[in-house]
Amino acid sequence: MKRKKTATLLAFFLGTFGVHKFYLGLHVQGLIFLLLCFTGASTLFALYDTVVFLGMSPQKFDRIYNSKHDEPVLRTEQTGQDASMSPCALRQDFNELKELHVSGVLTDEEFLAQKQRLLT
User: Fold this and answer.
1) What is the 3-state secondary structure (H, E, C) of the chain?
2) For the whole model, what pTM was predicted?
């Protein structure tokens, strides 16, 4: 379980080297930071990540970085409702699914599979 405070401190103190990206399981981004550490660009990006982490709610942090290993639990699965019965719930679940995909938590294949589950 990744912790927001740890990620924030790593981004601030060791972010130039991408340590916070490795901690969050974003290995490709961590390697990019490591390659850019001599240019100073990674320092700017790490400071940006620090500010983003500070402004992010704990719930959003958990949804983005701690649900990667778990199957995303959608509201319709939690309540046991059929998604076709509630268009608002379906739309909200789809928006959450899309947010996970855009943030990189879900791969294209996982996103399509989850989307298909929502639509059926």
Assistant:
1) CCCHHHHHHHHHHHHHHCHHHHHCCCHHHHHHHHHHCCCCHHHHHHHHHHHHHHHCCHHHHHHHHHCCCCCCCCHHHHHCCCHHHCHHHHHHHHHHHHHHHHCCCCCHHHHHHHHHHHHC
2) 0.58
